[in-house]
Amino acid sequence: MAVLEPVAVRLTPPDAPAAALADLAEPPQPSIAAAPPNVQPSGAEPLERAAIVSKPGAAVAGGGVKPRWMIAAVLASGVLGASLMARARPASDLPALGATRKITLDAGLEVDPVLAPDGRTLAYAAGPEGAMRIYVRRLDGGRAVRVSAEVPGDHRRPRWSPDGSRLLFQAGGGIWMVPALGGAARPVVAALPVPSARALYPEWSPDGQTLAWVRRDSVLARSIAGGSVRLLGTLSEPHSLAWSPDGRWIAVVSGNEGFVYGAAASQMDVGFISIGNLAPSSVWVVPSRGGQAVEVADGDNLNTSPAWLAADRLLFVSDRDGSRDLFLIKINRNGQPIGSPSRLTTGLNAHTASVQRDGNAIAYSVFTQSSNVWAVPIPSGAAIGTTGATPITSGSQTIEAMEVSPDGKWLAFDSDGAGGEDIYRLPLGGGEVERIVESPTDDHRPTWAPDGQSILFYAFVDGARRAFVAPVDGGEPRMLQAGGRDEQHTPVWSPDMRHVLFHRAVSGVDQIFELTRAADSTWGVARQLTKRGGFGGRWSRDGRYLAYVAPPRQVRIMGPGDDGEATSRILYPANDTTSARPVAIRWSPDGRTVYMKTFDARGQAALWALGVDGGAPRLLVRFDEPLRPTRRPEFAADTRRLYFTLAQSESDVWVMEVR
Asked: How does the average pLDDT of the chain come out, rounded?
């Protein structure tokens, strides 16, 4: 068994569709306030809009990938993470961080901590991912009290009212209010019947009169008592709102909501992604009355969980210097950042953070996660569980995707073991792990060339996933198409290596595209293969068929030619919302079977076999370990075994003094 010793988690979320303006009316208050004269309206409704443009990504140096700076974690525990580090401003301008105290001790996940205005009580979310509940507990001792038990759904993001008497939280696609010490919860923003139009990420105004929240790609506001809804702005994947103490600004994160909320995120499905997903995100401030939004922390790294220390000082969590730590940026009256962010802690491993209303304390959750590759034999009879799975990798790392080489001798995978996501290979017959790609950005989802001599993968370039190819025996990776900006999500080779498949969102729906290599080895314009939706396409080894995942919950197979989609046939016809949803497929080496991974409505995963010539799906593997689940769609197969990742997560809540 190979051992790769490393550090955290970097994944990449699915693309988020834009919001439909018609969904902005909040039942039972359907009217929407008209935009003031100085604001440009957009769409069918006259809505107030702030211009927000997200740029979540880090550029890869053109022509090659350079070695990354390795930054060691100096301190390993949340109790030791309070060393001050001044960067752009003198140390006297930074807060003095004092003693830290661990508040929660239970196994599992405890996240979203927020202190009551008087600083004596803490609210947080706890429980299994996808089924959390809201708890409150006093800092001076006593047991935690569950305050949200009667509301269905996953309960996240508690927020105290300014007077400390009530809590807002999100659950079941709506926003709820409950007395701070428990009692009957009532809906404040009703859930819509469309799952992708959930109401999320509630935030109180400082005076307690106004509620802000997110629906799809829109940041909205309304009186807490009801009435018309104002559109403050739109951006890609907005989340984690924080209203400034003077009421002028709302801080908001753009991108990677899966890191904080996992399956509860607005564009995620249960089981498709887990809490701790690391990918780029940026922090913005939006005028609470509308106007131009300002980026205060760019999207080259994970930047998330903003919280105001004062009206001109914004705290946030970032991995811009390696480990996830607390950073501070000063904001002028126009919302512009002054200088560069200053690092306040070292080695904190923070997940989310919030600031007590008087600025005297910070509540934060410390999050750790590991995910390694395991394997089981392909069963010929009854389905098996994962209890007896064989570990293929081990260590403090997170692996997302893996693939077996065409000759069956190597396993390629991505891992954040050296601080950021790089591409590795491991000899399945035994031996040492070798790094194939090392770059200053995260590298994802390796797939082998049919000749076994190179690896195809994607990395973020100017905010877009772009395809790269790298020799397995060393050499500079190169971008497949330099200069492009379109998404090339999960690129894979055709058997003759003349084509590359990938998918990207078109009008909010994933579609499959194909690049063709010309005689001079250049790549032409991508040709769209699907019009009705599709992702995760894979050619059979003989090139005769293309299998892919298609809406509403299907696996389809098509032949070559321009009319392939029109003549495609269904291998897995799950059309209703209660059936297991396919998230990834792989061909068997002999081309007679398509393996499929699914998640059901409860987040339970399974692996299946689909006969290319028809027949009922055959269940192969049940992921039946609650404390060691699989949360990613990726898996791999060879002639004998199925490969997948199993994850373990832990988080606890701490409180830190600010002097």
From this structure: 84
